[in-house]
Structure formats: C-alpha cells, structure tokens
Amino acid sequence: MISEEEARRRILERVSPLDERAVPLASALDCFAAQDYFARLPLPAFDNSAMDGYAVVASSCKKGERLRVMGEQPAGPDRKLRVGAGEAVRIFTGAPVPEGADAIVMQEDVTRNGTDISLNIDIETGEFVRRRGCDLAEGQMILARGERIRAATIALLASQGFADVMVGGEATAAVISTGDELVKPGEKLQAGQIYDSNSALLRALLQRCGVSATAVEHCRDDRESLGNAIKRGIKNHVLIISGGVSVGEHDLVKEALCELGAKIEIWRVAVKPGKPFLFGRVEQDTPSPKSSQRSAQSRAQPPTRSAGEGSVSGSECLVFGLPGNPVSAFVTFLQFVRPAILRMMGATNLDLPQVPTKLAFGLTNDGDRPHYIRGRLEHEKFTPIGRQESHALFGLSQANALLRIGAGQSLKADEIVDVRICD
Ligand code: AMP
Ligand code: MG
Residue 310: pLDDT above 60? Predict the structure, then answer.
C-alpha cells in the first residue's frame, strides 16, 4: 500500500498534456487556455457615457444654468460632434463622448425645454464618463496558459475580438460500473439488488472536469463481459471502472486488466475512503474514432517517450479502478482521476479549491490512513455531515467540502483548518 501523495505523483508522472487546438469561443467553456492572452484593445476602447443624459463641459455647468442642445449621439458610430461652454449633446449609455465634453449629466438631473436644458444640480468634471482604458490597458495579460476558461473569460475574449481560443486537448473517457447487484435507474429492483448510482456519479464528475463520457456501461461480475467492456473502454484516453477492485472472489477488474496486458502501477492506497484504488495503463490496439488529432498522429509515428517521461502517448489508455462504495468512488475520483484529466487538458491548477475555515467540533482520526471527512461549509464553519462511512451516499449528497484529517491526527473545535470545496 502506498501513500496518496505517492499515488498522485505516480499517476501524474504518466500524464502529459494532449495536443492543443483552436476552438470557437462558443465551445471554450471549461477548457484550459493553451497560451497566454493579452489585451488587443483597452477597455473601454474609447471614452463613453455611463448614463442616458447630456454631454457637457463641466466648468460651465452650475445648478440653474441653461444649455443649448446641439445634437444627439446614440451608442454606435461616432458622429464627431463637438460641445462647447453653454452647450450640450444628447447622449446615451455607451455612446462616444463628443469632443470638448468632459462630463455627462443624467437626464434625471435636467429639465428640458425644447432645444434647451436647465441643470438641476452642479456638475463635476469626469462625472459619468467611462474613461478609455480605465478597466483594462492594452497589452495587459487577460488569460494565462493553463487557466480555466469561465463564462466571464469568454466574455472578455469576445470583448477583445477573439473569435477562437487556443485550448488544451480534448480528453475522452469511458465509465464501466461493475456489479451483479446493479440495476439501471428506471428499471425494477429485485431483492438484493441496488440501483447503479456510480455510473451517474462518474458521468457527472467527468462533466465537471469538462469531459463528456463517450460511453457509460454496466458490466456484470463476469470475466468475459468485463474483458470485452474493458477492450471497448480503452479506446479512450481514460477508462474509469467502478467496483470489483477489492479482494473478494467477485473482484475481477485487476485480473481482467492483467489479461489484457495492462501495467498495474498502483493497487491499494492509504486513504479512507478509497483503499482498494487501482491505477494502470493499457496499450490500445485499435484507434479510437473520437481520439484527438495528436493521438492519431502519434499512432502513425513510433513512440517518442523517453525514459522516465510518462505520457498518454495516444496508444495507451489510463485506467482508474475505483472502489464501488459511492463515497470511495467520489473521493478517489477527485483525488486521483480529476488531476490526471485536468493535466491532460492543459490545466495548471490540478487541486480542488481550498479555503481556511473554522471546524465546528473536535475530530480525531484513530486510524492509520488519512480520512476525508465530508461536511458542509457554511458561514465560514465546517460541520461534518452524515455518516462518515464509505457507503453513506446521503451524507455525501449534503456535503459541499472535504476535510482531510491525517492518520492519528486530532483537531480541536474552532481550530482553523483547510477544507477542499467539492460542490
Ligand atoms: P465493490 O467495490 O464492487 O466491492 O463494491 C463495494 C460496495 O459498493 C458494494 O456494497 C456495492 O454494492 C457498492 N457498489 C458497487 N458499485 C456500485 C454502483 N455502481 N452504484 C452503487 N453502489 C455500488
Ligand atoms: Mg462489486
């Protein structure tokens, strides 16, 4: 049995980023930038009005003053109007500020009489003018290589005129849920059977990583079916197998993988829940129709991996065997599968977000493995929730954070601890 740090290190050693690609902004959400991006334009790109109102020269604008309205500037092409003392231009939000004007007076603060307005307040220079470059300077970095592209990132790239963005490769993944006891939700249960919840869980967790599973299938605890399912699954960059990795007679995953020539790199990790976790690699013999451009290229060329330089070469599938208990599957996915997938996709930050928070009550880990406690982070306090056993799915469903408590470690009530957000 190895430590979780060692397991993570061994896994990540075997992963290198997939080939970069250009995608339209519309497809870039949750991808990772493959290069640094810099502002092509300042934001705002020109001085413009923050309000519907009148563009004026502030020094000639005292309360009670009358101004002549010389024209109108809506948002859109610059009409190249000019404003002098005693004059105003009708203006609308986002419209370029006419030459000579240095303030905008809100329409609510004037009384209009035909072609004139009278001011109901004093005006100060710069009021309601959004200055060129006040938000973002030209040349400023707007997105770093490896950063996740969020909705606002997409908006920022669009505001700079980028139609496409270079992102990391698209990882493909398949899920196999093993177990004779499993029944598909929607079907009828018989005594002793349970619904397969890990398929849904793993599909959703993959989705959270920006990966849509190419296949999610159930497989009985039977050598032949398992072997066939694995053969299909390894056409992807990643194959996740739930259940069947423990030590019982019906735990056939390890054997089935070995029969297919898999190199088992990890089996059993000192972590609770999740001990029977397995990680291995299998050579693919048939190219995947959905594999990335790079995979296709690397298959056509001899492997170029040098000693010690692990990589997903495109002819190899990384296989993760997760324990069937739902909480174990959840924790091992987040600790081991997620970082591997994120690295493939070009991410730099592979960790769950961590926040310091107060522990609601004292906890001791008497065990010999670090324990991930499920809990709720609310009002800057972390409260363990539900049964802390690996089958306890309800508690997990109420949790939004994980607290790692080391083997033999005691934590006191109100102590500040780092928890990982797993919402
Ligand atoms: P295993 O790892 O196959 O020994 O399974 C451990 C426990 O997890 C058993 O109680 C299984 O019934 C349960 N389990 C296995 N696979 C699933 C699944 N896909 N959905 C829900 N529970 C599962
Ligand atoms: Mg099983």
Answer: no
**Angle, alpha carbons 243-266-363 (nearest 5°):** 75
Ligand 1 atom closest to Cα of 244?
Answer: 3
pLDDT of residue 294: 40
**Does residue 298 surpass a pLDDT of 70?**
no
Ligand 1 site, residue 326, Cβ cutoff 6 A: yes
Tokens of 406: 């080391």
Nearest to 241 by CA among 272, 264, 208: 264
- pLDDT tens digit string along 70-115? 999 999 999 999 999 999 999 999 999 999 999 999 999 999 999 9
Ligand index nearest the alpha carbon of residue 242: 1
CA-nearest of 341, 345, 374, 380 to 359 is 380
3-state secondary structure of 215: strand
* pTM, 2 dp: 0.90
Cβ-count burial of 200 within 10 angstroms (0-12 exposed, 13-18 middle, 19+ buried)? middle
Alpha-carbon distance values, 371 to 6, 329, 359, 364 (Å): 16, 14, 15, 10
| Span 223-241, pLDDT tens digits | 999 999 999 999 999 999 9
- Residue 398: helix, strand or coil by DSSP? helix
* Side-chain half-sphere CA neighbours of 253 within 13 A: 30
d(CA 265, ligand 2 centre) in Å: 21
Show the tokens assigned to 176: 């196999």
